[in-house]
Amino acid sequence: MILNGISILNFKNIEEAVLQFSPKVNCFIGNNGMGKTNILDAIYYLSFSKSYINQSDSMVVNHNADFLMLKGVYTRRDENLEVTLSLQRGKRKTLKRNGKEYRKLSEHIGLLPVVMVSPMDWELIRGAGDERRRLMDMIISQSNAEYLAALIKYSKAVENRNVLIKQGYRDPILFETVEEQLCSTAQYIHKCRKAWVNEFSPIFMEYYQAISGSAETVSLAYKSHLNDQSMTELLAANRERDIIIGYTTRGVHRDDIELLLGEHSMRKTGSQGQCKTYTIALRLAQYDFLKQVSGITPVLLLDDIFDKLDASRVENIISMVSNRDNFGQIFITDTNRSHLDEIVTHVGGDYRIFTVNKGVVKSLNTDTQGGLL
After folding, report:
1. How far is Cα 231 from Cα 250, in angstroms, rounded to an integer?
2. Are 222 and 193 in contact (CB under 8 A)?
3. Mean pLDDT per segment of 10 residues, for the chain of length 373 residues?
4. Is the CA virtual torsion 272, 277, 122, 204 positive or negative?
5. What is the helix (H) or strand (E) element at residue 17, kind and residue range?
6. What angle do CA 194, 199, 203 make, to 5 degrees?
7. Which of 294, 228, 367 is nearest to 77 (CA)?
8. Cα(260)–Cα(328) distance, rounded to whole angstroms?
């Protein structure tokens, strides 16, 4: 899949930009806080209809404006595709594909696979379990619409059960009625996550070894209450406890992935460089996995990825992402032009370099105002 160009209006500090892209490498240079990451986030927003940074919709609209609009022109499986997203303060967002509005935003997920590598990925290691569940859900949902539907149903069922708990109901028949859908969807979610971890782990370990130079051994372990008991058994055994605490304490909404360095937790033992290597390997494995299961080459967004890495790991990453056989279109930001020049040299052929300064984006090597959009 290729993003040929994008039109941005009032997205964060980017008041207006119309950009045409290389099908291979697109580099954005600028100091911190100038808007480089916002360009990548606009691309991400068109794929997921939400910000990678997990900001609310009101936060992504430029503070001097009342609305935003994004439009992307893609080539997907040799077909042209136009996606438009508009958002007005206080109103719901509108997402259109080739001029036709989606009934549900969830119908769009998976159409435009994108993988973003960001300094915020640090939270995958340091953050709570919901960060790692979000990783699982995002990857699996892009290739499995049934899984996404199950997640939505499960969340609603947990919400309904929590309402019963908070309102003081104790009738077991009423609880069993509400829990029936919760249990069926939980079983399916657990099955998908377990299969995904088993399939994803070897890909991840291979990328980590390639970046680190085989310096360390890493692994992933799926932690779930359903590894040992069924959801039905868990809910029945913990119903009184849940009533006392005030919410549902057991289920796949509490799942996690244990990130291991050797036999120890990466969170507790990993250095900054090891943690950075870990998160980059997770994202590159995500890219590889999506490419395999969907048959579509995702767009790769690399945001300031070289910070806190030693020279050898930087060199390994540059060599890896420059491989035309493994990676398709790449968007990369950095304050250090030497890294970007090295990637461009490795890749050769077509590329674009942009400067970003206080939300203003300019091309250094081509005229980007050519009317594509």
Report:
1. 8
2. yes
3. 96 95 92 93 94 84 93 94 92 92 89 92 92 92 89 94 89 85 93 96 93 87 95 92 94 96 91 90 93 91 84 82 79 84 75 92 67 44
4. negative
5. strand 14-20
6. 135
7. 294
8. 30
